[in-house]
Amino acid sequence: MMFADTPRAGLVRRLGVLLYDFMTLIALLMLAMLLALALVAGLEKAGLLSLVGYQDAAEYIQRHAIWFQLYLLLWVLWFYLYFWCKAGQTLGMRAWRLLLVQQNGAPVTFKQALIRLFTSLGGLGNLWLLVHWKQKLALQDQLSGTMVLVLSKEQSQQLNLHRQAR
Q1: Distance from CA of residue 98 to its chain's centroid?
Q2: Which of 38, 35, 137, 124 is closest to 78 using CA atoms?
Q3: Residue 155 has what DSSP assignment?
Q4: Cα-flanking dihedrals φ and ψ of residue 65, to 5°?
Q5: Which among 95, 96, 138, 107 has a CA at the least distance from the CA of 120?
Q6: Other CB atoms within 10 Å distance of the CB of residue 15
Q7: pLDDT at residue 146 greater than cutoff 70
Q8: Is residue 1 part of a domain?
Q9: 4 located within any domain
Q10: Which of 44, 79, 135, 163 has the fewest CB atoms inside 10 Å of its own CB, making it the most exposed?
Q11: Range(s) of the domain holding residue 15
């Protein structure tokens, strides 16, 4: 296994990653909102949508909040699934030098990433580390067959410089 001697990530690093990824997601969701507003305005300008009875495009989106919330959820799902499957790292994980792999060291599959995303309970699954601190496997790690490793500076540099990150 390529990462046989690499330590697993503890709670503090994982919480740091959550904070970093949260800030990244806020920026991503702002972009999603901009695209939604532009789409509604474009559809109205093309005559395919009427904003009669609405103050503006933002009110239209607000009144159809369930669809907009599902749209935003898709952006969040895409963020995590894309980065975990593509490189084993979100932007926050890269900054904190963490890598997500299967428990045998292989890249994470889409199915594992999906299981991991839903069993993380919005980050609360990391609190499982307080109970099982020796294993350093969060709830989502155990249920998805994955683990989060702490890379050395050299491993991180090697992984990112040489594009060995899938």
Answers
A1: 13
A2: 35
A3: H
A4: -60, -35
A5: 138
A6: 15
A7: yes
A8: no
A9: no
A10: 163
A11: 11-161
- Alpha-carbon distance of 65 to 60, in angstroms, equals 9
Task: Characterize 43-81 residue by residue with b for buried, 16 or more Cβ atoms within 10 angstroms of its Cβ, and e for exposed.
Answer: ebeeeebeeeebeebeebbeeeeeebeebbeeebeebbb
Flag whether 6 is in a domain. no
**Residue labelled with tokens 């109970």:** 131
pLDDT single digits (tens) 86-129: 999 999 999 999 999 999 999 999 999 999 999 999 899 999 99
Q: Provide DSSP, 9-76.
A: P-HHHHHHHHHHHHHHHHHHHHHHHHHHHHHHHHHHHTTSS--TTSSSHHHHHHHTHHHHHHHHHHHH
Which residues have C-beta within 8 Å of that of residue 107, sequence separation ≥ 6?
A: 85, 88, 101, 166
Q: Could you count the other beta carbons within 10 Å of the beta carbon of residue 140? A: 23
The pTM for the full model equals 0.86
Q: Tokens 């499982």 label which residue?
A: 128
